[in-house]
Amino acid sequence: MSYRTMFREAVGEIPPTSIDVDGVIARQRRALRLRRLAVVTAAAAAVGAMSFGAVAVTGRPAAELPTGPSPTNPAVRIPAPAPGESFTPTDTAIFAAVGRVAPDLEWGAPQGAGRVWDSGPTTRGYAPNGYYGSGWVRSGDRTGELSVQITSDWGTIPPCAADAVSKDGCATTTGPGGEKIRTSSIRDRDQGAASRGRPPVPSVRKNAFVERTDGVVLILTVEGQDEDLPLTVAQLTALALDPAVAEVAAEPLRFDAGAQRMSIDSAVLAALQREAPGVRGAAGRGPVFTPNDLGAGWSSRGGAHTGDAYQGQGRILVSRVAGLFSVRIHRGDPGPSGNLSCEKPSRTDACEAGTGPNGERYRTVTRNGAGASAERTVYVLRRDGSWLVVTLGADGKGRFALTAAQQQAVAFDPAVALAGR
């Protein structure tokens, strides 16, 4: 059975305003690949750090745990982050709620199943639109994978279909705060196993969909091969209604640095698309580039992104002219970039200084080198004290993919900004 079919069985026909289902499907398939990879690496006795590396989810992995408690490996009631990693308030709220709703529950991945907990932002297009986390839980010999999704653009949860009521025990109820709650237990078999020469593998999924009065939807699922899973439908519902989870659900990505970075990525790409309709990403190493998705080649992971700094770049393509485009934003001392006055004109440099549409001061410097050595940079000091440096490199013929006015418009866009303190 395909993931899309499974999704439709769980929620019925998906409304047009719902989350990116293909992104969820891709995430499930990627998780399966990670589990298979974990089996291989365990056999080779080489344990490596792995995380979800896609637009849909940016992982914060917990440390690997043993497959079961023992005198030397006691039960783990709360996951511990890997060295150098940390959990967000949404992660910790979920852990605390699990401890209240199911005090006997332990966190621990089956042999070869990978990490205990991964989480991060979901996306619609290039922009983060919600939270997704999944991890392995167990109670005695009962094991399952718990997933929690929080989104504000799912839409209205549809009612139970007649066949879902009889087949999956689908039920719709109302929560204490007026929440619309839909629950079900779905049983199926992996029919694809037969084509691989193996008997079909049974699967059981328990779901709880909770639509709050503020439009936020929480989707909790526990899945495994045992009919007696470590969490019940009632416990999944209680997790969604737990006060700590309810508090963070209003803004599940508020303190997520990865989501903040993705929000700036999205604002930059939206500004480029507005100012240069038809702009694409440029794939290849040159001198000939092929069109690609604009976001596919954009990277801000290598930059030192904090709440006070951002750096992202990607090669863009407009009307067969390619160029490396970068954006830096920071608070604090700008160094040499803080000089917003123009020096005397020279044969190699052209300079323009002035005031932008929102009262920001700027300076645009074009260095006219030979071929790809030509470069145009827009320096901006905003009224809130933040600095932007937007740079575009020329192609091999010295041509720029954007006009100076288009590049300045991206730099002046108020949405291209660090999150407020």
Please tell me about this protein's structure.
Strands 1, 2, 3, 4, 5, 6, 7 and 8 form an 8-stranded antiparallel β-sheet that branches. The chain has an 8-stranded antiparallel β-sheet with strand order 10-9-11-12-16-15-14-13, covered by helices on one side. The longest helix has 23 residues, at 21-43. With 421 residues, the protein is α+β, with helices and mostly antiparallel strands. It has helices spanning 3-11, 21-43, 89-101, 162-168, 192-195, 233-241, 243-249, 257-275, 404-412; strands at 106-107, 117-124, 127-139, 142-151, 171-174, 180-190, 201-211, 217-224, 280-283, 290-292, 309-318, 321-330, 349-355, 361-367, 375-381, 387-393. The chain is elongated. Residues 1-74 have low confidence and may be disordered. A hairpin with a 7-residue loop joins strand 14 and strand 15 (375-381). Helix 3 runs antiparallel to helix 7 (243-249) and helix 8 runs antiparallel to helix 9.
Features:
single chain, 421 residues, alpha+beta, Jelly Rolls, 2 domains, 8-stranded antiparallel sheet, 9 helices, 16 strands, 24% helix
Task: Give a concise summary.
The chain is α+β, with helices and mostly antiparallel strands and 421 residues long. Helices cover 24% and strands 29% of the residues. The strands form two sheets. Strands 1, 2, 3, 4, 5, 6, 7 and 8 form an eight-stranded antiparallel beta sheet that branches. Strands 10-9-11-12-16-15-14-13 form an eight-stranded antiparallel beta sheet, with helices on one face.
